[in-house]
Amino acid sequence: MNNYINNDTIAAISTPVGVGAIAVIRMSGAGSVKVLDCFFRHSANTVISHRTCVYGHIYDNGELIDDVMVAYYKSPESYTGEDMVEISCHGSVYIQQTILDLMVRNGARLALPGEFTFRAYRNGKLDLAQSEAVSELITSENKKSHDIAISQLKGRYSSRIKSLRDKLVELLSLLELELDFSEEDVEFAKRDEFMALLNTIESELKSLVYSFDLGNALRNGIPVTIIGKPNVGKSTLLNCLLEEDKAIVSDIPGTTRDTIEDVINISGYVFRFIDTAGLHKTDDIVENMGIERTMEKVRNAKIILHVVDATNADMDSIKREITEFQSYLHEDASTSSSKKWIVVVNKIDKAENMGNCRQCTNDICDKDAKSIVGDSAPDLIFISAKKCENTRAISDMLCDYVKSQDIDSRTIVTNVRHVEAMREALVAIRSACKGFEDGIPTDLIAIDVHHASYSLGSIIGEISNNELLDSIFGHFCIGK
Ligand code: GDP
After folding, report:
1. Which of 200, 330, 470, 478 qualifies as a FRET site for 132, CA 20 to 30 Å off?
2. What is the spatial distance between Cα 211 and Cα 207, in angstroms, rounded to a whole number?
3. From first to last of its 480 residues, what are the pLDDT tens digits of the chain?
4. Is the CB of 346 under 6 A from ligand 1?
5. How far apart are alpha carbons 67 and 79 in whole angstroms?
């Protein structure tokens, strides 16, 4: 971090390594224009002024290197808060390297990873959480992760943390005032008011910590576990969904068949499909290991697609299969949290005992489902995976589920560092609350409140240390 604290002029290529149509090379620091003047020539009719672009030529020892556009931003109205110059040149690696070299030969220094953003942070342009959002924005791969990063960058999330911290700081100052007057045994605020305030902060923090789980799922793919007996058509269904959406992002092969994952982007939402082995009671040790792995996937799932085979089945046999699965869920407490559970009755093209289900619409299926397993019914859908019939309805159900989560991008935490700091703050707040209840001395409670405010401050960078800054900015790419 020591290298970051200079005020010199820094330079870097900001576009990816390789040949593109154009490339951008940036400089930041008070000397930027002076350095530029050493090798940039433009018409006498144009002037380099704040937030304008000037067309001109780059020369190296009298030799023309390229035609370029130069944008200039005057301090403090730039990304870094310093004078900045951005040169858009043709994408040749040779041209990029020569311009960078000219900058360095004329007084600039090569920027370290993340140094531009670090300067933006140091100059108060971005707080720490916003700086991290820049990195998330650059790497966002789908609409939801982009929404989250943009919202964090715009500071909405930071302002919420800041207001919680401000409340803690105010509380702390009252406690410290009491300590100053400890001889006189005065109380500057009622204990129940303190408690009420801490409880409010605690519940806000809890909801942010809770959002982490959901935020991660949105960013990395909402886990959808497909279960069902062998040969019911799980793989066929998966292929059909992949085929329909033509948007396979990747295949992640695991060590065994039951950990294969397919990531599909459906209408901007990323789903991570996990195909598993079936669930049934058995004494076979090896089989039981497979079943335990399946249960693990069920525990981690947000959505369960339970595929059953309609061949030779009727409503009663399907009901039995669903009930059997339900008994597994209830035996394992950790799986019973709110999950979307969709029963997919497959192979309706071969079903002879299923009445009207061939033409089944979602509405009818819902009613059927209620009649099968009562009010805690899963959604029930009838399909033919082989013919890709009605499978679009599954995609729609998955997207509807995400929308129904009422997810507000402003309040989703995706950063592990942030959630750790929030958890620490929560522990300290609970300890302070207990301290008030048990009537322990004010100075000990003040330590907890201070700890909580410190943890929240570290998220937005009101409290920081070199090690932390190093680890955050060191992970940026050079030129950002
Ligand atoms: P998995 O073991 O659950 O993954 O089952 P598969 O997807 O491998 O399918 C097993 C067999 O059922 C294959 O021969 C599929 O062609 C067939 N199958 C899958 N879905 C359907 C369907 O909707 N209708 C019919 N008739 N056959 C299907």
Report:
1. 200
2. 6
3. 556 667 899 999 999 877 889 999 999 999 999 999 999 999 999 999 999 999 999 999 999 999 999 999 999 999 999 999 999 999 999 999 999 999 999 999 999 988 999 999 999 999 988 988 898 888 887 777 788 888 888 887 788 899 999 999 988 888 888 877 776 666 666 788 889 999 999 999 998 888 887 777 777 788 898 888 888 888 888 888 876 543 333 334 333 344 457 888 888 788 988 877 666 666 777 777 777 777 888 888 889 999 999 887 777 888 888 888 777 766 665 555 567 889 899 998 887 656 555 444 444 454 555 555 454 557 888 899 988 888 888 988 998 888 887 556 557 787 888 899 999 999 999 999 999 899 888 889 999 999 999 999 999 887 767 766 777 787 777 777
4. yes
5. 25
For ligand 1, the distance from its centroid to the CA atom of residue 256, given in whole angstroms, is: 20
Ligand 1 centre from 260 Cα, in Å?
A: 18
- CB 234 less than 6 A from any atom of ligand 1: yes
The alpha carbon dihedral of 44, 50, 53, 58 has a sign of positive
Closest CA to 321 of 359, 281, 264: 281
Query: Which 3 state secondary structure label does DSSP give 303?
Result: strand
pTM above 0.70, yes or no: no
Specify whether the CB–CB gap between 375 and 326 falls below 8 A: no
Pull the structure tokens for residue 120: 């933006």
Q: Is the CB of 235 under 6 A from ligand 1?
A: yes
